[in-house]
Structures are given as structure tokens and as C-alpha cells.
Write a structure and sequence with these properties.
Pfam families: CHAT (PF12770). The chain has 1284 residues and is mainly alpha-helical. Strands 8-18-7-9-13-16-17 form a 7-stranded mixed beta sheet, with helices on both faces. The longest helix has 31 residues, at 553-583.
Length: 1284
């Protein structure tokens, strides 16, 4: 079959974008032919490629190769193979994508075997005599890549919007040697052969190039388009007229290097992921918008396609109209949230449904339609549908061998996600886009791109370190798989491996900077890959083909990268050792790690080493020494002589061969990027060193360079961390009004950013950083400054209303401090109290999700997808907590005191104290030594307000991170422990306390009074003293007239029921305590019950008592939020809880708990829970051996023998007799015995427990399962005489 007959089968042109003949007609013509003929197989192969089914096309070509044919036909087939592979490489519908130098381009060319197909095509014509028509056929097919792809790309590079001017200049030089006149020559040859449709197609391609070379509105470009349109009208070419209209409409909406079907996103980049550095700064200049002229042209095109009977042509128009509506719907809702009524999105969906019908047999266009369906599902909050559809796109594309369309779909979703995250602050929606991209790439088996989707998701989750950490685990797996995938790419694959590995490492290390265990795991993997790849030698080959001489700039650069990587790994190791030592309260050991690191850095002069020396000094609190090296860090523009490598070159010039990675002689201007980086780094340095005078100089330089004032993004949101640092400099250099303005702007931007975060984990992390803590404290300090002034005017406050009077300013200072404390916990407690019944159902659904997320975190699996219920819950929660239910704290401030003591000094004192108590061997220091440390802390915390405390009975502390784990009741006031004169308790924040107080007043009555859960340790593994846990529980059971229950019959579900329906829950079971991750601590029930399980409960309890383990050790974050036991218990609805701060003495704890419940039973209705606890502490503090023995006898007498036998501790009384007999003179005034517990929450409540109804006592066999990440609970007395 000759070329003209082949063209006739396909409607006059081989290119599917002409839309001239329906696929049904083509199918009918091919079916009428002999199915066993070579011509039939050839047509089948080409037709399959036109539809986008490249796997079927390859199968047909494989069959053709097995059949006998002439040399001429074989040559023609080789050209068609090349033509179809190029169509797979550059689908006409996606020809606007410019992929020069991208990873996907390299992968696709390798996968498709483009090089081999090119060589086979060129060799097939040698010695073969072709007819003129066959010669034209082969020439057209051979030139397809240049005509259809390469030349239009060169034209687009010359467009005025194109950002890389150097590359554009390069394109002009190349274009001179590849004149577009050859397109016209091809058109002329086709016309002479009577192939008029092919002639028109060549003219269309020439016009596409011309549109790229010239601004779309120029007269010469418009004249060329008019000329082509006139020719179509003369020949009554309805499809040609419609395509002219569509081309004009596209040009009105999009520059030639993108398209409305891509929503004008640039889908290119070196790593084909989230960022496209060259384009990101300019992409905003050509955002898609609704243009009435364009819409009118599309409607005119629709009519012409209708006259021509082109069904697929209809789909072309419907797809574009759907994209316009989709973009409008994206912005109709606030920050990417669902628009009210969804009318616009429904319009987009209607057009998509019509386009889908028109493209029934067109694989490529059907998949493009499908990805826009995914977008509509995302914007309509049908996330499960979106994820399923995205995976189906990948799977279908892979089954058809059409990988480029899957790549388009996934990369498009990533770019949409970036836009939602960066421009609309819709973080959760952006995360869903990344997850859909990941599903698409995973379904297609594109491991490398799946990795890019995960890395993009990590970037989007910058405020949610826990979810980002889960993604990092997934990324590590994909890095390994990607490295294996590139193994078959030879030397080029090695370069791909290196660049991918460096990019992945940068993202992963950034996400895990505070998670040193996972970071250490990644560093181990990275260094293994580094060794296997010969990383730094490969870097040299990437940058240059020639061998690098020793001492050359390139060699030095590679060596610097290698040294920096080693140094960063060492820094991470030191940080991890430091944190582990602090967990054990080994302050001196922890700080020695930094001192040793400083010694290692002593003779190193590179900038990174200098910076790490600086950070180490800041960790040690040696501000003066840090200031001394500040000048060596600051860039020259800011008065220093820092020489950071990435500051040195405002332009990069790539040399070497003209490769897929770099174009020879091209330059990239980085001036603006470096300006900002230098300013940002300088701010960081002066704030860390607290060198405020030098900071003032930094701001003056920044103002001269027009960096200040800071510029908000398109949503009016500033970089709040930068604004906070700027404000701190103003504050400490006397510009209080300017400081307050900057702090206020930072606060406004932070709150607006947080509103865009639709999951609690992200919100909590956004508020729980050291930066947020510094912001709120800075606001409080400046507010206090104004409270001391008597000026007539208030500063300009922006979003904060003007304030008059000293008292109001003090209240505002307290409010600012409150904003930074336990906000995530406060949000949840408020939600429990104030939401409607419907919203409470949504809240419960959210609690299930939060529970599952925490479980996933432990299992290190994938991240849950958000859905509409979670969004509604968060929206309701934000509305109730942040607006209408914030407590009024404007009254009651009696004293304001600002201490000059640094947090690091408070932390040292607290940790030194804790070190003496957190020991399995009992106290390490005498009461006198501890009293000395405690008195120093009291001088800071209590002495300034001692006069006010004189008339108070109850002291409530809002504990900061520096005091984590410290027994506040042991603070020395006038030489005596505070608890002797005052009841003491903690609260995460005043707002939380206020809400817990109100909740307690309105609490529904619990059906049970008390549930007692204990572990008798009858197995003997921990000695007789461990049995005191069960004996103490028997004593409580006797007081409350309860019955024992077999622990084997107690399920987790039964425990949940009792936890939710009891007024008091007393837990004396030893479980598993994980200091690094309090959420993973557990209780030993019939099944392991983890702290995270409490998130699912809604308790009516007034008091939860954890009488064992180190249950009081949650985590207070650097931003003063709370996690762990306190978060879980208070979030569940309980009013207060008592938890242990260290491993307790079993016998002393039994007596302490006994006395507490004795007080509660006798006086709970007239004195507070905190006062009952204080009296129990005082009783133990003042007890001598005789008094302690009497207390043990009281416990003995309270034991019911039948209950003890049922409890399988028949010798309970005998064991107490032995304990009494073994008593020796022991100083029970030591805080180790009476101060191990802390009360958190509403401890001022009064409880009437005498009317307690019977409830089961649950004895649980202890299971201290080992866990390398968790500490076992070990209880050993001082000297070991009373316990085994």
C-alpha cells in the first residue's frame, strides 16, 4: 500500500491532532482489509499509536518483523517504527511540554529505544531504491521529530515570556542552522504529490513555530494565522477552520510553552517534581484566566467541528472549557476549599463528561480528561475517588505503554499541589494532590517519579514533622528502588543516580532534622549508596568530561561537598547523643558532646565548620564566644567575611559537552536568590548570638538593598519566621513600636497560615516550634513595655485592635503567652465542650483518624488521606476555639516579673535535679544537695512573687520545656518544700485550665464512681515489693467496696468502657514507657493498650491516676505545646490526671496513694483534689519509721482476706507484716519518696466519693515487653534491703 492510500485511510494525515476522520471510520477501513497482510499489520500498528495504545502498536511491528517482505517495505516499516516511537515520546496533545534536559526525557528515550530505532531507520535506506512518493513518505516520517517537536520547542524558547534568556539566545543560533523554510518545502512537496491534508499540517506546524518565535499579538504572527485560516475557508476545510480558532484561543490564554489543559502550569524540570526553579518565579505572570474572546473562539470551533462531524474535535473543545471552569472553581472557595454549591465545578464536570464521551477510543486524550476528573474530585473533597482514579490512570497508561501521559498526569498534579500550597496556603489539599500523583506514578510503575511525589509530599508537610517522617521512610525505600532502576542506564544512569540521591537526601534530611533516630538511619543508607556509586567521582563526571587535575576549582568544589557531607553526618550524630543524654538527665555528659565536637572543629576553616562551631557554642549557652566568630559567618555585604560556597557565584556557567544535563555556555543568574539567602542567614546568625547591634546593621543594609520592608506573597502572608527575627532586632535596639508592628505582622501571617492546615498534627507542629515560642514571647515583652509607658498613643497594631491603659496591655501580654501554649490540646478540649451533636460525631471520626495516624507513625506506613469530615471538624474547631470560646484573662494579673535568667540555665538546674531522682537505684543525692538546687530554681520562679503566695493555698504552674520532669512541689520556699504550705499542680495553659473548669461543672454524671486497675506481679519476677502494687489496690477496693475481676477476662474494649464511664480511674499497672515517643507508651491490659488509644475515648472522669511508670513524662515541645500522657488523657475529656515523673518506690507509693484516697474519702467534698494530694505528701514527708509502720498497719487492716485470695495474693497481710518488720530508719523527707507525682489539669475540683457505687478492680499480669526504643519500668529501693 502506497503512502497516499495510507494517508487516505487516516483522513489525509498521520497525526491524530488533525481530528479529521473518526476512529470508527478508520477502524472500519482497516477491518475491511486482509487481516494477514503486511499492509493490514502496518495500518494496525500506526492506528494503535494514533490512539495512544503503543503496546499494541509494538506488538504489530513485532509481527511484521517475523513476516517476509521486500527491502523497500522493510525500510518503510523502519520509518514507521521511528514515527510511532516519537509519537509515544511526544504525544501531539502534549507537544507543548518542553522536556529538554529532564529526567523523564532521558528515561523515556531509553525505555522506548529511540537511539536504536533511529539507527535502524537510517541504515534501512542504504542501498534501497525508493520511488518519489516513497522517498517523500520516508522523509516526512524521518523529519517528524524535528517538524513536530524540536523546531516548535526552539520557537517557544524564543518567546518573550521564556525565563532563561541564555537558553533563548542559544535557540536562536540553532534555529538559524535549521531554517523553518524546510517546513514550507515539505508542505510544497506534499502539495505537488496531491497530499493536501498533509500539506496543511506542515503549514500548521510552521505556524506553531512562528507563534513561538513571535509575541502572539504581533501583526506578522496574526497575518500568518489569518492567511492559513483564509486558505482553510477557501477549501471548505471545516476541521482546519476549527483548529485555527482553537489555536488562536489557546494563544490568548496560554504562552506556547504551556496550555490550558495544563492550567498554564510548567510541567518541566530537572527532576520533574514539585519545583521548577527557572520557571517558578515567572509562572505567576501567565496564570490561566477566563477570557471571553477565547471562550467565543472555542464556541466557534465547536460549531465548525459539528459541521465537519468530528466527534474527537468536540472533545478537544469540551476539555478546554472544562479546564477554564476548573480553574475558576479552584479559586471560588477560600484558599482552595470547596466552593459553595459547587456550581462551577459541576459545569467543569459536565464538560469533562462530554469530552470523555468524545474520546472513547482515544487513550491519550481520555487519560488527560481523567486527570482533570481527579482534580475535580480533589476540589470537591472526594479524596478516596481521586486516589483511586489516579492509580487507575497510571495502571491504564502502563497497560497501553503510554507512559508519557501518566507522567503528564502525575507531574501536573504535583505542580497543582505546589500552587495550592504556596499560593493558596491549602496545605491539606496540596498533600492530597501529591498523594494522587504518587498513586498515578505507582500504578504506572514509575519508581523514580513516585519518589518525586513522596519528596513533594514531604515538602508540603513541612509543618507536620510526624507525617513527613512517615513519608521519609517510604522515600528511603523508593530511593533504593530508583537506584536499581537506573542501573541499566550505563554511565548516564550513574549520573542520574547521583543527582537523584543528592536531591532526595536534601529533602529527607530537612524533614528529619529533629528526628535523629530516623536521620541516623537515612545517613547510614546514604553513605552506603555514596560508597557504591563512587558519589564524588561521579559528580566530577557530571560536571565535566575531562579529567580533573588536583587543586583545580572543580576538584576543590567536589572535595568541599564531600567534606560538608561528612561534617553534617557528624553533627547529626552529636545532636543525637546530646538528646539521649538529656533524656537521662545527664547534663554534663550531654554538653561534653558539644565540647568534643568543638575540639574536632578547631582547625577547620571552611564556612560550614565555622557555622557548626557557632551553633555548638549556642547550644552551650556561650553567647560571648559565639559573637566572637559571628564576623566570620556573616557575608561581606553585611559586614563579615563569610565564604559560603553558594554565595560566591551570582551566575553559573556550564562547560563541557552539550549534554542532556547542561547546555554548553549557558548561564543562570542567581543574584536575587543569593541576596535573599545572605539576608536570611545573617538574621539567623545575629539572633542566635543575640548580637543586636550587629543585627541593627544587618537591617540597615537590607533596607538599602530594598529587601526590607518584607514583601508578602500573593495571599498577603509574610514569611513569619523572618518577620519575627526582624522584630527581635528592633525590640532589643530600642525600636519597640516598630518591633510590635513586625511581631504583629508575623503573628497575623502565622495564624493565617495555620488556618490553611486542616489536620491537627500540622497545626500543632506549626505552633510548637522554637520560632513560634520566640514570636509569642517577643509579643508579650513588647506589650509589657507599653504597659509601663504612659504615652498618649498606641502603636499601629495591624490585625490587633488598639489597646488603652496599663492593665489592658498586661492582659494582652498574658494572652500572647497563652497563644503559644498547648493550643492543639486546647482546640480539642474546646471542641469536646462546645460542638453540636453533629459536629461531635465528626470530632469522633477525626479522633479515629488521629488514632490511626499515630498507629501509622509507629508502624511507619503510609499517610492517611484527609476527607471532607476531617475538614469540617477542623473548620468547626477553628471557629469555636479561636474565635468565640477563648477564655477572658483580662483580669486577675497581680504581678508582672521579667527575669534575665536564660532558659538554658533553668534547664541545667532542672536536669541536674532530675538526674538525682530518675534512677532505678533510688536517690543519688541527699535532701540537702537537692534543696540547694531547688532553692536556686525557687529564686527564679517563686521569690519574686513570694508576697502574693503568702495569702494563697494553691499554686498552679504553666510548665515550660525547660522545667520538663521537675517536681514543682519540691521547690524551696523560705527553706522548706513548697508543698508544706501550698497545694501544687500543673496546667498546660490557662486557657486549658479555664475550659477544664467549665467542663467539670457541666459534666454528665458518670455511671461508675471508680475503676481500679492494678498489676499484682504475682509471677515473682520483680520481687515481693512489686506485690505492693496489688496490695495497695486491694486496700482501695476495700475502701470503695468493690469486687475483683479476673484480668484474663478484661479486654481492651472493657477498659475503654470503664475509662469513659467512671468518675475516678486508678491505674497501678506497670507497662512500657517510651521516653522518646510518649504516644507509644502502653499499659499491660489483656491486649497491649497504648496511650495513643486514649485519643479515641470521650471520658466522664474527674480524675485519672497513673500510680506507676513515668506516666508524668510527656513532652513539652520547644513551642510549649504538650504531647503524650497529658495530651491524651485531657483530650479524652478527663478533668485532671496524676502521673509519675520517675521510677517510683513501690512501698512508699502504696502508702502515698493510700493516704491520698483516705483524704479524698474523708475530705474530698470540702477540700480540693490538689489539697488532698498535698496532705498525703506532707504525711509521707514528716513520717519517721514508726509513723510509716503505723500507716502500713492501717493498710494491712483494710485488706479483705477473701478478696486477697481471689486476687491470688493470699499472703497480702503477711507480706505487709514482713515489710513492717524490715523497716529501718530511712529519710522519707527525700523528694524521691514523696514528690514523684505531678497533678495536671483541674486539680482545684472537689470530689464527693463516699457514695461510690461498686465497680470492678482489674488486676493485670505485668508484661514488661522489651523494646529497644522504650525504657522498661524498673523499681529498686535505696540500698536494696526492702526489695529484690
Amino acid at each position: 500500500m502506497e503512502f497516499d492510500r495510507i494517508l487516505d485511510v487516516f483522513g489525509g494525515c498521520l497525526c491524530p491532532e488533525e481530528y479529521r476522520r473518526s476512529f470508527d471510520d478508520i477502524e472500519q477501513k482497516i477491518s475491511d482489509m486482509d487481516a494477514n497482510s503486511n499492509d493490514h499489520l502496518l495500518l494496525r500498528a500506526v492506528f494503535a499509536a494514533m490512539k495512544g495504545n503503543f503496546k499494541a502498536s509494538d506488538d504489530c511491528f513485532q509481527k511484521l518483523r517475523t513476516l517476509g517482505c521486500s527491502e523497500v517495505f522493510r525500510a518503510r516499516v523502519s520509518h514507521y517504527v521511528f514515527f510511532c516511537k516519537q509519537m509515544a515520546r511526544h504525544p501531539p496533545a502534549l507537544r507543548f511540554r518542553e522536556e529538554m534536559g529532564s529526567f523523564t526525557a532521558i528515561i523515556n528515550e531509553t525505555r522506548l529505544g529511540i537511539a536504536a530505532a533511529t539507527q535502524d531507520m537510517q541504515s534501512s535506506r542504504q542501498g534501497v531504491e525508493l520511488s518519489p512518493l516513497q522517498t517523500l513518505e520516508c522523509d516526512i516520517l524521518e523529519a517528524f521529530w524535528q517538524i513536530g517537536c524540536f523546531w516548535p520547542k526552539l520557537g517557544r524558547m524564543n518567546h518573550p515570556f521564556y525565563p532563561d534568556t541564555a537558553l533563548a539566545m542559544r535557540s536562536r543560533e540553532i534555529a538559524k542552522s535549521c531554517s523553518f523554510d524546510s517546513l514550507r518545502v515539505s508542505a510544497t512537496r506534499a502539495g505537488r504529490a496531491g497530499l493536501y491534508d498533509l500539506e496543511r499540517h506542515c503549514h500548521n506546524l510552521a505556524l506553531e513555530c512562528y507563534f513561538g518565535h513571535h509575541a502572539c499579538g504581533r501583526e506578522d504572527a496574526r497575518a500568518a494565522a489569518d492567511s492559513l485560516l483564509a486558505k482553510c475557508r477557501e477549501t471548505h476545510d471545516r476541521v482546519g477552520i476549527a483548529l485555527s480558532y482553537i489555536r488562536r484561543a489557546d494563544a490568548l490564554l496560554s504562552p506556547p510553552f504551556t496550555n490550558p489543559i495544563a492550567l498554564n502550569f510548567i510541567l518541566d524540570g530537572m527532576l520533574s517534581g514539585w519545583d521548577v526553579p527557572d520557571w517558578d518565579p515567572v509562572e505567576a505572570s501567565f496564570r490561566l484566566s477566563s477570557n471571553e474572546d477565547a471562550v467565543q473562539l472555542y464556541c466557534s470551533a465547536m460549531k465548525e467541528m459539528e459541521y465537519a462531524g468530528s466527534t474527537r474535535g468536540h472533545g478537544l473543545v469540551h476539555l478546554r472549557l472544562a479546564c477554564i471552569a476548573e480553574w475558576k472553581g479552584l479559586h471560588d472557595g477560600e484558599r482552595g476549599r470547596p466552593p459553595s454549591g459547587n456550581q462551577i465545578l459541576e459545569e467543569a464536570r459536565r464538560h469533562l463528561d462530554l469530552a470523555r464521551h468524545c474520546y472513547q477510543d482515544d487513550v491519550t486524550n481520555s487519560q488527560i480528561v481523567a486527570v482533570h476528573g481527579v482534580v475535580l474530585d480533589i476540589l470537591s473533597w472526594k479524596h478516596p475517588n481521586a486516589l483511586q482514579s489516579a492509580r487507575r490512570i497510571g495502571q491504564d497508561s502502563a497497560s497501553h505503554g503510554n507512559m508519557v501521559v501518566a507522567q503528564f498526569a502525575g507531574i501536573f498534579l504535583l505542580r497543582l499541589g505546589r500552587y495550592l500550597h504556596q499560593d493558596l496556603a491549602a496545605t491539606e489539599t496540596a498533600v492530597i494532590c501529591c498523594q494522587c500523583a504518587r498513586e498515578c506514578f505507582g500504578g504506572a510503575g514509575e519508581t523514580f517519579l513516585e519518589l518525586q511525589a513522596v519528596l513533594s509530599e514531604i515538602t508540603a508537610l513541612e509543618q507536620s514533622s510526624e507525617r513527613a517522617a512517615i513519608c521519609c521512610t517510604t522515600a528511603q525505600t523508593l530511593v533504593k528502588a530508583t537506584l536499581e532502576q537506573f542501573e541499566g542506564f550505563g554511565d548516564l544512569g550513574r549520573k542520574l543516580q547521583v543527582q537523584m540521591l543528592l536531591h532526595a537526601s536534601k529533602v529527607i534530611r530537612g524533614a528529619l532534622h529533629a528526628d535523629y533516630k530516623r536521620l541516623e538511619s537515612w545517613n547510614r543508607d546514604f553513605h552506603k549508596y555514596e560508597s557504591d556509586l563512587g558519589l564524588y567521582n561521579t559528580m566530577r563526571s557530571v560536571l565535566s568530561d575531562s579529567s580533573t587535575s588536583t587543586g583545580s576549582p572543580l576538584e576543590n568544589a567536589v572535595r568541599n561537598v564531600q567534606q560538608a557531607d561528612e561534617l553534617q553526618a557528624r553533627y547529626a550524630q552529636v545532636q543525637q547523643c546530646y538528646d539521649r543524654a538529656l533524656d537521662q538527665c545527664e547534663v554534663e555528659e550531654a554538653e561534653n558532646y558539644w565540647r568534643e565536637f568543638l575540639c574536632e572543629l578547631e582547625n577547620r576553616e571552611e564556612h560550614l565548620a565555622c557555622f557548626m562551631r557557632f551553633v555548638s557554642l549556642c547550644h552551650l549557652g556561650e553567647a560571648a564566644a559565639a559573637k566572637d566568630i559571628l564576623e566570620s559567618l556573616l557575608p561581606p555585604a553585611y559586614g563579615g567575611h563569610g565564604k559560603r560556597n553558594d554565595w560566591q557565584y551570582t551566575k553559573y556557567t556550564w562547560s563541557g559537552r552539550n549534554s542532556r544535563f547542561f547546555q554548553e555556555g549557558l548561564e543562570q543568574d542567581r543574584t536575587a536568590e543569593i541576596e535573599w539567602t545572605q539576608f536570611e542567614s545573617s538574621l539567623q546568625y545575629v539572633n542566635l548570638a543575640a548580637d543586636w547591634e550587629r543585627g541593627k546593621q544587618v537591617l540597615e543594609v537590607a533596607a538599602r538593598r530594598h529587601i526590607l520592608p518584607l514583601k508578602p506573597d500573593k495571599q498577603g502572608i509574610l514569611d513569619w519566621q523572618i518577620a519575627s527575627k526582624v522584630a527581635a532586632i528592633y525590640e532589643h535596639t530600642g525600636s519597640q513600636m516598630r518591633a510590635f508592628q513586625e511581631y504583629s505582622a508575623a503573628l497575623d501571617s502565622l495564624e493565617r497560615r495555620i488556618i490553611g492546615l486542616s489536620d491537627t498534627s500540622s497545626r500543632q507542629n506549626a505552633r510548637s516550634t522554637i520560632h513560634t515560642s520566640l514570636l509569642y514571647e517577643g509579643l508579650a515583652r513588647t506589650a509589657l513595655y507599653f504597659s509601663q509607658q504612659h504615652e498618649s498613643s498606641s502603636p499601629v497594631l495591624g490585625a490587633i485592635p488598639p489597646i488603652q491603659g496599663d492593665a489592658d496591655w498586661k492582659a494582652k501580654a498574658l494572652e500572647f503567652l497563652e497563644r503559644g501554649r498547648a493550643r492543639a490540646l486546647f482546640d480539642l478540649i474546646v471542641a469536646q465542650r462546645h460542638l453540636s451533636e453533629l459536629d461531635k460525631d465528626l470530632l469522633q471520626q477525626w479522633c479515629e483518624k488521629e488514632y490511626a495516624l499515630r498507629k501509622l507513625l509507629e508502624a511507619q506506613k503510609g499517610v492517611l488521606s484527609a476527607d471532607v469530615d476531617e475538614f469540617k471538624r477542623e473548620e468547626a474547631l477553628a471557629r469555636s476555639a479561636l474565635e468565640s470560646h477563648a477564655p477572658d484573662i483580662s483580669k486577675g494579673i497581680n504581678l508582672v516579673h521579667q527575669s534575665e535568667t536564660r532558659d538554658i540555665d533553668v534547664r541545667r538546674l532542672a536536669l541536674s535535679y532530675n538526674r538525682c531522682l530518675r534512677s532505678s537505684l533510688g536517690p543519688r543525692s541527699s535532701p540537702e544537695e537537692l534543696a540547694t538546687i531547688s532553692a536556686k530554681l525557687a529564686d527564679i520562679l517563686l521569690v519574686p512573687c513570694s508576697d502574693i503566695l503568702e495569702g494563697k493555698d494553691h499554686v498552679i504552674f504553666v510548665r515550660a520545656a525547660a522545667l520538663e520532669g521537675f517536681p514543682l512541689s519540691a521547690l524551696q520556699l523560705r527553706g522548706k518544700p513548697l508543698m508544706l504550705t501550698h497545694a501544687v499542680s500543673d496546667t498546660p495553659s490557662l486557657a486549658v485550665l479555664h475550659t477544664l473548669t467549665q467542663t467539670a461543672k457541666d459534666r454528665a454524671k458518670a455511671s461508675n464512681k471508680i475503676s481500679i486497675i492494678a498489676d499484682p506481679h504475682r509471677d515473682g519476677t520483680r520481687g515481693d515489693m512489686a506485690l505492693m502494687v496489688g496490695i495497695g489496690a486491694l486496700s482501695l477496693a476495700s475502701r470503695y467496696e468493690t469486687e475483683a475481676q479476673n484480668p484474663q477476662s478484661v479486654s481492651s474494649e472493657a477498659f475503654r468502657s470503664q475509662f469513659q464511664e467512671s468518675q475516678i480511674v486508678h491505674i497501678s499497672t506497670h507497662g512500657k514507657v517510651c521516653l522518646d515517643a510518649p504516644w507509644q507508651s502502653s499499659l499491660a491490659l489483656q491486649e497491649e493498650f497504648k496511650v495513643v488509644d486514649l485519643l479515641r475515648l470521650q471520658s466522664k472522669a474527674s480524675l485519672i491516676v497513673f500510680a506507676a511508670c513515668v506516666s508524668g513524662l510527656g513532652r513539652t515541645t520547644s513551642g510549649n505545646d504538650v504531647t503524650g500522657f497529658s495530651h491524651a488523657v485531657l483530650q479524652s475529656g478527663a478533668s485532671a490526671y496524676i502521673g509519675a515523673l520517675w521510677w517510683v518506690d513501690d512501698l512508699a507509693t502504696m502508702v502515698l496513694i493510700y493516704v491520698f484516697h483516705k483524704q479524698l474519702w474523708s475530705n474530698g467534698d470540702v477540700v480540693s483534689v490538689a489539697e488532698c494530694w498535698r496532705r498525703a505528701q506532707e504525711t509521707l514527708y514528716r513520717a519517721n519509721t514508726a509513723i510509716f509502720g503505723d500507716l502500713l498497719r492501717e493498710v494491712r487492716e483494710s485488706i479483705d482476706q477473701k478478696a486477697a485470695e481471689a486476687f491470688k495474693i493470699p499472703d497480702a497481710r503477711g507480706l505487709l507484716d514482713d515489710a513492717i518488720e524490715d523497716l529501718y530508719d530511712e529519710d522519707l523527707s527525700h523528694p524521691f519518696y514523696w514528690a514523684p507525682f505531678t497533678i495536671v489539669g483541674y486539680a482545684g475540683q472537689r470530689l464527693n466519693v463516699q457514695s461510690a457505687s461498686p465497680e470492678s478492680i482489674i488486676f493485670l499480669n505485668g508484661r514488661e515487653a522489651g523494646d529497644r526504643d522504650c525504657e522498661k519500668v524498673r523499681l529498686t529501693p535505696p540500698g536494696g534491703s526492702r526489695r529484690n
